[in-house]
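User: Teach me something about this protein's shape.
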Amino acid sequence: MSTHRYVVALTGGVASGKSAVEARFRALDIQAYDADVAARAVVEPGSEGLAAIAATFGNGALDAQGQLDRAAMRRRIFDDPGARKTLEGILHPLIRRWLHDAVAADTGPYCIVSIPLLVENREHYAWVDRVLVVDTPVATQIERLTRRDGIDEALAIRMIRNQSTREQRLAIADDVIVNDGDEADLDHAVQAQHARYLKLAKLR
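Assistant: First, the predicted structure itself:
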């Protein structure tokens, strides 16, 4: 799979501020294609993804409207690593194809692909040119999660531990934006990366 577009993969831990960074690139007229959006798109009613899930997990995977019953599927995969692997085996290739097609159709100078689980799936995204990591101290992540999701600290820590570590993310980073609180700093950091990516895309 190759794309001629200059592609920057954006990643970061839960509550690191990926969405805030994505929004700032969008404000600069740079498209950001999000794996979370792709994950919903590939299981729309009538999609090959939804058909495959129903065929594999039975009609209990669908709600009364024939849509994916997310709560039911979450319960099924929560305690069953085998079911989780099966579901990921259906969804991940479809998500990757959706993102790749979106990038291939993009007409901007460069574009962003937002992939929360990039560390875990790096080999599948060999077609991205650079990796931008939004980095946040773990203490800040915990504070944001407890405030944003109304959860306790123990659950916040569990959510963070469920993902790759901060060190693993930084190890694959070409560029890093530290997001530890100041909105103006975040604006400047995104502007600086934007200028760099415009240059790199031109050199391409």
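Now, about its shape. The first strand starts at residue 7 and ends at 12. The first helix runs from residue 18 to 27. If you'd like, I can walk through any region in more detail.
User: That's plenty for now, thanks!
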